[in-house]
Amino acid sequence: xxxxxxxxxxxxxxxxxxxxxxxxxxxxxxxxxxxxxxxxxxxxxxxxxxxxxxxxxxxxxxxxxxxxxxxxxxxxxxxxxxxxxxxxxxxxxxxxxxxxxxxxxxxxxxxxxxxxxxxxxxxxxxxxxxxxxxxxxxxxxxxxxxxxxxxxxxxxxxxxxxxxxxxxxxxxxxxxxxxxxxxxxxxxxxxxxxxxxxxxxxxxxxxxxxxxxxxxxxxxxxxxxxxxxxxxxxxxxxxxxxxxxxxxxxxxxxxxxxxxxxxxxxxxxxxxxxxxxxxxxxxxxxxxxxxxxxxxxxxxxxxxxxxxxxxxxxxxxxxxxxxxxxxxxxxxxxxxxxxxxxxxxxxxxxxxxxxxxxxxxxxxxxxxxxxxxxxxxxxxxxxxxxxxxxxxxxxxxxxxxxx
Length: 403
What we know:
Blueprint: H1 14-18, H2 23-26, E1 33-34, H3 46-58, H4 68-81, E2 91-94, H5 97-108, E3 114-117, H6 124-131, E4 135-138, H7 149-161, E5 166-171, H8 183-196, E6 199-203, E7 229-232, E8 246-250, H9 255-259, H10 271-283, H11 285-309, E9 314-315, E10 323-327, H12 350-359, E11 361-362, E12 364-365, E13 376-380, H13 385-400
Parallel strand pairs: 1-11, 3-4, 3-5, 5-6, 6-7
Antiparallel strand pairs: 2-8, 7-8, 9-10, 10-13, 12-13
């Protein structure tokens, strides 16, 4: 029996983390605890580090080739999700998930066409879609922060009635709420999409990060999803955002669309990125299991810390990802009731600004996630328990000191 690996979240000290040069650790001054962007405070999984070091030692830094990445993901999906639906010939390698989303939407829609999203949702959905001359149409989540199928159907019907092609960009698991869609929910989505002539594109970058108590269902595994697309990578599960590589997965009925993908799109991924992602899916599962145990413990700790230090802040513990969606509307900041004297900048709402200014904790501001995001913040709990405890203690003190 293999010996369990140590919790990856408890290995690096704050001083070690502060020596990093990535966005998470360089966007704010050194006294700020950064719990915002989706980077984890972990070292590389040993299997990934070994694969990258070996490539460097070989001088293997040329152009990517082969199908090892898709084969590794296919085998991982079989072991992890008991899904054998990834056919290598129905995949394409792309630089990262969001650039892959753009390329797929270019296959399925034309400039001016609509792309439906479930707000509040990952902010780049808005930026990447609108910058590529498509219209974002919101189908807001329900009060339970899950897909509201009635709202989704009404949005599909209304949007289709305007003419043009319609795509639906699905976040599975959902960012920022951490909801993991069930097989039943996804089958209902697929049925609605077929009925209304909507093409589905599923961003499944957080698929490996489903916590105890929930089960990940690949969108393309449900009945009716044969004409859909999904995008996956090891980026979030193994903290590889700086090693660019992702995969487009096409359903059996979407092969003709995938074949229209320009050949030059496959030139963008990094060879080292493909090596790293392949190693993660092929040999990084034990490390992932240790990470998920640590994240589960942090999820429970976060709930206790919120109850102790920020009892007015509401949150539904996430089923997946390492992101917590905190409803801070009870603080009264976004309404302007208590925000006097706060220097609110254009890209940050008053709540996130208050926590940054008064507690020196950086969070993602909820308003950038679309309708339903105002008065919320997104907190990244993929860090050590010491850092998480210090951050929540500071945040509670700042909230108590509000005028």
